[in-house]
Write a structure and sequence with these properties.
By secondary structure, the chain is mostly helical. Helix content is 82%, strand content 0%. The protein is globular.
């Protein structure tokens, strides 16, 4: 005999099923992101090596001109993208979850076609107005000449990000790993090695960067085409029936161009203003440590690609609890995994900078410590901005973006003329910290996700204690580089051990349990 289930039991079963689904997606996202993290480590290691070789090989003036031109390329990339990269992952994942193939393909066609078209127009404008730009926009003639070459990278890098975001929607972590973190960095390192071997100049370097970028985008295009064919999205397609949801996408993405404005304000405007009021040598001293600052973002960047599609699918299922669980679980993983780099680039900023870039860049250590502190705060607070976008809170995001961008630029204009690279570091750090506090407040107001999850108080408390202890040790005894590295490693291991149960490593990566003593170490 069958009986109807009790409504309470049915609700409990539905809730358990939903939680199980979100747990599975969270662990899948962390596993895939961890693979990308491995690739990101390799990539940043290779890119940092290339940066060190370039900085040591070129004069400070030539390196500064190259860095200055790349800062303007970043601005051009923002113009080319038109904010479309911010919505690609969300809309493709949303339409794919609904089985709407016509809109999936329409979205890809619209976004990629728009970026390439606007990119071509930007290249023609910069090349055509080269004489006007020299002096009016770019004061250094060498930087202006490099800009006419490197501007080709603007649409190339924009397309590269779009292809990577599209592959992330379909969980092709391995493809992204190979292309983004192995092939791309290897191509640029090869260019640098050829530069030094041939005894060539900075123009050779610029041309090599463009060629390597073109090769990388071509490989990405092939990978995406293969993925779409394997998923059957290109079979039996009536191309006349493809629908391009232009209004829906543009109404979401165009306001989010303000997010790109914040990125430009934090990562490009400071160098541009610094070059205007000071010189390319000051730009070199400020930008040379940027790869080390970026090391603090390595975990964040690796987890970004898969977080957006996973959170969007949970949002499409109306699983707010699942999104909150994904958010905070990802946040503590990023905070703990990023801690060793944070320790190395703050307490060890001085010896690390001199060891890598020689004594002539010793003053850059202070800039490294300041920027690394702000970058780590951005990581430890989690994907607040991405989550706001998943929930479609465009107006709030736009308001926060505008406030942060204006604040950062104003601080740049106030501090850089008087204090140079130090002023740029302080302005950028304050702007980034303010930006994150505003987004964190928006979580509670717009999504219902707590500003801070009490379940993870212990995680952040152990990180704070470890940072304070390292700072005190550095201040009191000033250990050498080797001992400092050892102390940072011990502190990182202590943070990991204290929070192993919160990370739930054993169930996220069950294969680790096969290793000797793994169960005891992980508390499994």
């Amino acid at each position: 005999m069958t009986t109807e289930g009790d409504p309470g039991e049915i609700a409990f079963a539905d809730e358990a099923s939903s939680r199980g689904s979100s747990d599975k997606m969270t662990k899948g996202q962390i596993r895939g992101s961890s693979l990308l993290l491995t690739g990101r480590l390799i990539s940043l290691g290779v890119n940092t090596l290339a940066q060190i070789l370039i900085a040591r090989y070129l004069s400070q003036s030539a390196f500064g001109a190259f860095a200055y031109a790349l800062s303007l390329v970043t601005l051009g990339e923002t113009i080319v993208t038109l904010g479309l990269d911010r919505g690609l992952g969300r809309f493709v994942a949303l339409y794919d979850e609904r089985g709407d193939v016509s809109r999936v393909l329409g979205t890809l066609a619209m976004v990629i076609g728009t970026v390439l078209s606007v990119g071509l127009a930007l290249i023609l404008v910069v090349v055509g107005l080269q004489e006007l730009l020299t002096g009016a926009v770019v004061s250094d003639p060498q930087a202006a000449a490099l800009l006419t070459i490197l501007i080709i990278l603007a649409p190339i890098q924009a397309a590269d990000n779009l292809f990577g975001g599209a592959l992330a929607v379909f969980a092709r972590a391995r493809s992204i790993f190979v292309r983004k973190y192995l092939v791309g960095p290897a191509l640029r390192l090869a260019v640098v090695i050829l530069l030094i071997t041939a005894g060539a100049g900075v123009t050779f370097l610029a041309i090599g960067y463009v060629i390597s970028g073109l090769l990388g985008v071509g490989l990405y295009a092939v990978l995406l085409w293969q993925v779409l064919r394997q998923r059957g999205l290109l079979s039996d397609v009536d191309w006349r029936a493809i629908r391009i949801p232009a209004r829906e996408i543009l109404s979401f993405t165009i306001p989010l161009i303000t997010t790109d404005l914040v990125y430009v304000a934090l990562h490009s405007v400071d160098a541009i203003i610094l070059g205007h009021y000071w010189d390319t040598t000051a730009v070199a001293e400020y930008r040379v440590i940027q790869p080390l600052v970026n090391l603090n973002q390595i975990v964040y960047s690796s987890f970004t690609l898969l977080f957006m599609p996973a959170a969007t699918r949970l949002f499409a299922r109306n699983d707010t609890t699942g999104v909150a669980h994904l958010y905070w679980k990802t946040a503590i993983w990023m905070a703990i995994l990023s801690f060793p780099i944070f320790a190395m680039t703050t307490s060890l900023a001085g010896p690390v900078t001199v060891a890598l870039y020689e004594e002539r860049y010793a003053d850059s250590a202070v800039y490294l410590a300041i920027l690394s502190f702000a970058a780590y705060m951005n990581v430890a607070l989690g994907f607040n901005g991405l989550t706001l976008r998943v929930y479609g809170l465009v107006r709030f995001s736009v308001a926060v973006n505008l406030i942060a961008a204006v604040t950062t630029v104003v601080l740049d204009l106030l501090l850089i003329p008087a204090y140079g690279a130090l002023g740029a570091s302080v302005a950028t750090a304050l702007g980034l910290i303010a930006f994150n506090f505003l987004k964190q407040a928006g979580l509670r107001l717009g999504t219902g996700i707590s500003v801070f999850d009490r379940a993870y108080v212990g995680v952040y408390a152990t990180i704070l204690v470890a940072v304070v202890v390292l700072a005190i040790v550095q201040f009191l005894i000033r250990p050498g580089l080797i001992l400092s590295v050892v102390l940072a490693g011990i502190a990182s291991a202590a943070v990991l051990a204290a929070n192993r149960r919160q990370l739930d490593v054993a169930t996220t990566f069950p294969e680790i349990l096969r290793l000797p003593f793994a169960r005891r170490i992980l508390g499994a």
